[in-house]
């Protein structure tokens, strides 16, 4: 089968000629959308525990060494040090620098990725990231989810599309690799909203995208909306179709890091089909094939 979209796994294979896996790391931070600065509830799909890795009780060096040991037993010798939990720039630039510097001594860490909110980054943070990036390649991941401000409001993101665009443009001045995180199946969104989000990203200096399918986890506001019948999760076929439309409207050079996410064991409420990740990915690839379509062929 032809490669109809720009897969992250191919990019890593080409760059590092061996298997590269993510090693999740936790700085023990929180998020302004949870600690009362912007809101206490957080985004409607985010659960307080679910965003963390549970590793923050260990120092960063302990987390790296434990993680490397486990991955090396599986034959993996190259990893991405991945700060995923909460907002990883929601701290002082000095704290960030001190912790990132701890990763520089591990040759097994070939990349550092760090996820955050677009409104939680300052020039001070970006200067630190630029400095680290000169010694070990570093990328930043911003959650956008949708380019529709009404949707952002509905899901309680507490930032706007403009905040995201400003963060991306500022970050590019520091020559960092930028990933955007988007979600298919958000309340009230249609295929057209997904297309507009994809085209918006294509107009910005983005290097890579992570596409997630919205799923409901326990102890979230979304669960409550689902249980009261106010939110109905997107159907499998619609999610596949909207993902294909998203890919067709993303610039061909943008790397696609993922097409769907993984709920933590025991946390998923609905939809059940989310659990079969490879079935979803195959359905997207088959539909691209059936249409004779490629990433970016609609722009
Ligand atoms: S910005 Fe991220 S960590 Fe904060 S509430 Fe939303 S999903 Fe959760």
Give an overview in words.
The protein has 299 residues and is α/β, with parallel strands linked by helices. The protein has a single domain, classed as Aldolase class I (TIM Barrel), CATH 3.20.20.70. Helices cover 36% and strands 17% of the residues. The protein has helices at 8-16, 60-73, 93-101, 123-133, 149-154, 161-173, 191-202, 221-227, 236-248, 277-291, and strands at residues 20-25, 78-83, 109-116, 138-145, 177-184, 208-213, 216-217, 255-258, 268-270. The chain has a 7-stranded parallel beta sheet, with helices on both faces. Strands 7-9 form a two-stranded antiparallel ribbon. β2, α3 (93-101) and β3 form a beta-alpha-beta unit. The chain starts with 7 loop residues before the first helix and ends in an 8-residue tail after the last helix. The model has no long low-confidence stretch (mean pLDDT 95). It binds iron/sulfur cluster. Residues 31, 33-34, 42-43, 46, 51, 86, 117, 143 line the site of iron/sulfur cluster.
Helix content percent band: 25-40%
Number of beta-strand segments: 9
Order of strands in the sheet with the most strands?
A: 1-2-3-4-5-6-8
Report the end-to-end length measured between terminal Cα atoms: 23 Å
What is the CATH class?
Alpha Beta
Task: Give the overall shape.
Answer: globular
* CATH 2nd-level architecture: Alpha-Beta Barrel
Class by SSE composition: alpha/beta
Ranges with pLDDT <50 over ≥5 residues? none
Average of per-residue pLDDT values: 95
């Amino acid at each position: 089968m032809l490669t109809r979209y720009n897969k992250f796994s191919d990019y890593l294979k080409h760059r590092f000629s061996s298997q590269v896996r993510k090693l999740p790391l936790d700085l023990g931070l929180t998020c302004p959308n949870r600690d009362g600065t912007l809101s206490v509830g957080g985004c409607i799909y985010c659960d307080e525990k679910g965003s963390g890795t549970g590793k923050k009780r260990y120092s960063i060096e302990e987390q790296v060494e434990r993680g490397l040991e486990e991955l090396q037993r599986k034959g993996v010798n190259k990893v991405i040090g991945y700060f995923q939990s909460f907002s990883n720039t929601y701290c002082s630039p000095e704290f960030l620098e001190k912790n990132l510097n701890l990763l520089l001594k591990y040759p097994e860490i070939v990349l550092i990725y760090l996820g955050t909110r677009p409104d939680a980054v300052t020039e001070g943070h970006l200067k630190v990231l630029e400095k680290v990036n000169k010694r070990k390649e570093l990328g930043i991941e911003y959650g956008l989810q949708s380019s529709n401000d009404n949707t952002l409001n509905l899901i309680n993101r507490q930032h706007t599309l403009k905040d995201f665009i400003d963060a991306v443009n500022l970050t590019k001045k520091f020559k960092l690799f930028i990933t955007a995180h988007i979600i298919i199946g958000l309340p009230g969104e249609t295929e057209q909203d997904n297309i507009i989000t994809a085209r918006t990203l294509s107009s910005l200096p983005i290097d890579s995208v992570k596409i997630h399918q919205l799923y409901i986890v326990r102890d979230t506001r979304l669960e409550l909306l689902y249980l009261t019948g106010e939110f109905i999760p997107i159907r499998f076929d619609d999610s596949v179709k909207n993902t294909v439309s998203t890919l067709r409207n993303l610039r061909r050079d943008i790397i696609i890091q993922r097409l769907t996410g993984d709920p933590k064991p025991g946390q998923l409420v609905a939809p059940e089909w989310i659990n079969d990740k490879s079935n979803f990915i195959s359905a997207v690839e088959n539909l691209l094939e059936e249409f004779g379509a490629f990433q970016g062929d609609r722009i």
